[in-house]
Amino acid sequence: MSASPSPYLAEESEFNLSEDVVTKITEMAAVFPQRNSALIPALHLIQDQFGWVPPPAIKQLAQLLKTTPNKIYGVLTFYTMFNLKPVGKYHIQVCRNVSCSLLGAKHIIEHLSKKLKIQPGETTKDNKFTLSLVECLGACGTAPVMMINDTYYENLDAKKVDGILKSLQ
Amino acid sequence: MIQEKKMLTRHVGVSGMEKIDNYERDGGYIGLKKMIEKSPQDFVEEVKKSFLRGRGGAGFPTGFKWGFLPKEKNKPFYLVCNADEGEPGTFKDRVIMEHDPLLLIEGMTIAAYATRADLGFIYIRGEFKWIAEILERAIENARAANYLGKNILGKEFDFDILVMRGAGAYICGEETALIESLEGKRGTPRVRPPFPANAGLYGCPTIVNNVETFGCLPFIAKQGAGTFKLMGTFQAAGTKLYGISGHVNRPGVYEFPMGTNLKDMILYAAGGVRNGKKLKAAIPGGISAPILKADEIDIAMDFDSCIKANTMLGSGGIIVMDEDTSIPEVAEAAINFFVHESCGQCIPCREGLMKIQQLLKMLTSGKGKREDLDAILQISNNINGATLCPLGDAGALSIQAMINKFPEEFEALLN
């Protein structure tokens, strides 16, 4: 990921879609009965490549799917999983909904905040961790729960969180 | 005592169920083979007779939903599996998809034959990436064995399934919002009519069913509506997956005949309230369902009994709260969720829920007055029934129930 202070001003070449991503998007656009259905899967692929969805990538995607960047932006901003700005190497998303709250999500969030010295919504100075709060992750039976990048961590307590953070150093 | 009845969850803990031979060895695909010998219409009638009702929350009879498809076929028909499990308290569909993916795929193939669908989609919530990968592998296996693809089982029947991951929007669990999302748009519910059975995905006739609903079909195809009806209640047959979470000793997903007693499930299946505490309240069907007090939980968990108790079965996501729980805090977590997930299309939902959120925050921060509490009840009345989809109602009525059933807790916060 770019360490550039303002990614919106970064060189476009920094955000070229990889060949692999372009091929996959083109394939998907052909598999779905209508090309536009490939939009959300394509945004996932772009986020997998960059960790977020950078504006230059939106332009390239618009060309691939024969649509406009504005239309893509409208869809992109509806869905909370897509990051509109860069996140840390590890994106920690903690569930704060009812079942998790009942079993101490608040303590988990406070603990993470204290350990990482950031508030929810912020990224550590070394760009390693971003802390976000999310609504239900669909794992209420193993609450409290958090997700780091694509992986679920369940039945959390402060000690377990410490262990997980340590493993990510 | 109550006994679990394992129809959908019998392969939990068994590995390798995405492989065709393992699935076949345990009776897999017998249902499809039996059903495909009959006409599609015969199976639609069989499902009508089975009293199978939609497991996504609304409880609409599945066979009748299929019956709304046009008789004439001059456009492609689509079949969609709603796997956008996101209602807080709900974590049941993932159990089928993780442990028995071919059960879902066989169920969808059976449904595709009955509804004359050309192509199927599984719309799964974006966070379940590893489960989407399990499904992809299982679909690949089914294709290799010609259970998907062209001329399935040597018949003139073509069907395939595509998996699409959502991207973090609860509203996409609503069927028309889901269809919008499948079309690559913002997930905003559509005005009905037309209903999806007439004009759904890409404007074509579309059936949307829940994962658990599809999961019931191989059993009905194999053993018939009569055997299916032996489980559950007269008006809602079969088993149901109940997810129990919150302050219980053994949280998890349990499968019981439809209509099993809520109190028994909390007590025996989930081992009762943890740490020896007393029960204060339970939400029976995901946070959209109005809350029940401890003395109201002696009810049968099926669609009609829950309505009689002024709540709803919803997704069967049971959230249990012990005596130390603050109901206003639960209300705050609930309203934060609904405000966050409102698509913003209907003003009563978008503005009304936000106003309730502000007023609740005033209360919990000790600055609220009696008028604020009254205003919450009034606004929730006004939201009810005034929106395109049930999200607004769910937010309004769940908060209203918390205030009506635990008024003393909210009054104690008044300034």
Describe the structure.
The complex is a heterodimer of chains A (169) and B (415). The radius of gyration of chain A is 18 Å and the shape is elongated. In chain A, helix 1 (19-31) runs antiparallel to helix 2 (39-50). Chain A has two domains: 7-76, Arc Repressor Mutant, subunit A, CATH 1.10.10; 90-167, Glutaredoxin (3-Layer(aba) Sandwich). In chain A, a hairpin with a 2-residue loop joins strand 3 (146-148) and strand 4 (151-153). Chain A is of the alpha+beta class and 169 residues long. The model of chain A has no long low-confidence stretch (mean pLDDT 93). Chain A has helices at residues 19-31, 39-50, 55-64, 69-76, 98-102, 105-116, 158-167, and strands at 90-95, 129-134, 146-148, 151-153. In chain A, strands 2-1-3-4 form a four-stranded mixed beta sheet, with helices on one face. Chain A has seven helices and four strands; from the N terminus they run ααααβααβββα. Chain B has helices at residues 20-25, 30-35, 40-50, 62-67, 93-99, 101-115, 129-144, 175-182, 211-229, 262-269, 303-308, 327-341, 347-364, 370-383, 391-405, 407-411, and strands at 78-83, 119-124, 160-165, 206-210, 239-246, 252-257, 279-283, 292-293, 317-322. In chain B, helix 6 packs across helix 9, helix 12 packs antiparallel against helix 13 and helix 12 (327-341) runs antiparallel to helix 15 (391-405). Chain B is an alpha/beta fold and 415 residues long. The longest helix of chain B has 19 residues, at 211-229. Chain B has three domains: 20-225, 3-Layer(aba) Sandwich (Rossmann fold), CATH 3.40.50; 240-322, Ubiquitin-like (UB roll), CATH 3.10.20; 327-411, de novo design (two linked rop proteins) (Up-down Bundle), CATH 1.20.1440.230. Chain B has a five-stranded mixed beta sheet with strand order 6-5-9-7-8, with no helix packed on it. In chain B, strands 3-2-1-4 form a four-stranded parallel beta sheet, with helices on both faces. Chain B has 16 helices and nine strands. Chains A and B meet through helix 2 and helix 5 of A and strand 3, strand 5, strand 9 and helix 12 of B.
